[in-house]
Amino acid sequence: xxxxxxxxxxxxxxxxxxxxxxxxxxxxxxxxxxxxxxxxxxxxxxxxxxxxxxxxxxxxxxxxxxxxxxxxxxxxxxxxxxxxxxxxxxxxxxxxxxxxxxxxxxxxxxxxxxxxxxxxxxxxxxxxxxxxxxxxxxxxxxxxxxxxxxxxxxxxxxxxxxxxxxxxxxxxxxxxxxxxxxxxxxxxxxxxxxxxxxxxxxxxxxxxxxxxxxxxxxxxxxxxxxxxxxxxxxxxxxxxxxxxxxxxxxxxxxxxxxxxxxxxxxxxxxxxxxxxxxxxxxxxxxxxxxxxxxxxxxxxxxxxxxxxxxxxxxxxxxxxxxxxxxxxxxxxxxxxxxxxxxxxxxxxx
Amino acid sequence: xxxxxxxxxxxxxxxxxxxxxxxxxxxxxxxxxxxxxxxxxxxxxxxxxxxxxxxxxxxxxxxxxxxxxxxxxxxxxxxxxxxxxxxxxxxxxxxxxxxxxxxxxxxxxxxxxxxxxxxxxxxxxxxxxxxxxxxxxxxxxxxxxxxxxxxxxxxxxxxxxxxxxxxxxxx
Lengths: 349, 171
Prior knowledge:
- The complex is a heterodimer.
- By secondary structure, chain A is mainly α.
- Chain A has 17 helices and 2 strands.
């Protein structure tokens, strides 16, 4: 009997199996339902979850779970839930969203690692060169101030012009890990200079206030440094949690920057509240990962008795940042996909 | 889409488990560590209030402390995993459970093995090796899990109910 979802009579054959008198055929028919990612399959499975046959009932429950996880809803198309609700129903809690980031990473890890190595090469080289030249910097032929200046310039170039490139490469590799067709379309879309420009503009909006504030805090705090630090920290958390989906929105939509901005502002507070809920889990994860890497680094400094531990520490923080980069991007993309933004749906469909 | 592990039993029944990811496992570990610290402090301080404190930092008190630390460090996980069906308090909070790779209940030897090797997973510090192992192993296993043949899964929930706790969809 033909139960191939690609064929027109696949579903009716499946129903025929379910309606047969043979229990084994019925079970087989129910199990086949999960191949049809359609509301009608979910409706049939739901009705069978009260079947007198226990094995049919159990199989039907599994099919319902599988279809729900795949985002299938039994409701009529007119009453379809917003994408965000479907997604949050599927991913039930913040820890599950965070776990999903790691699952994504695993699904396409080869390509993600390749893209990461290419995109984050400057940062990796900076780390290596900092380890290699630790004895020259500060107390050797290179003065501390010139080393600071070089590092600052490299940081600014990487931060403002390297990030868009990283999003184009690593972001695409992460998008390829999502199983749905719109994500695959984004992952396979050819790269273009226009896309890079759009991402660069968006990156400036997302990063400039944060980097500017940090520079102000470090070089010339306008008032009491401790108080300014607290103000900056609050601003950082608020601004960062509000704008953290700008880059993935731009990557997915590849639209005019202002269109994406409008979507961000239109989503407004509701969107921000949603993001902030997930943001706390994200902060937990970041604390966990950074802590693990940085404490390991500090042990390394002590163990190997490195000179110039200040520079080595900066190198370790940069390395930690580089290592968690793909997870950070994965989280941003996952959250962006859970948002109800029209731009995401219209442009990526 | 959460990751699933499918196990086919000798009776040809398909069992599906939703795997626990790195984040929820890390958070559960954090909670367990917190509970261990709280228990440690309470067990360390309580003798002082029940008259045992007269010994001060004598040999008996030191021995008592060592036994408390030893038991909390080495027995916390196996005891909870064995007597609470694969769930420590931290895992219970996150809805996780340790089971054998074939879906069976975790046994004494497996629980002991996975928890002895926890110390290797901790290396170099903060479970870096364990994290890497979870990320790269086929079934999200840390080294202890690989040695003991165990996996950590999410507890099954009744997904036939409509999302959000409502009634099932009408059809």
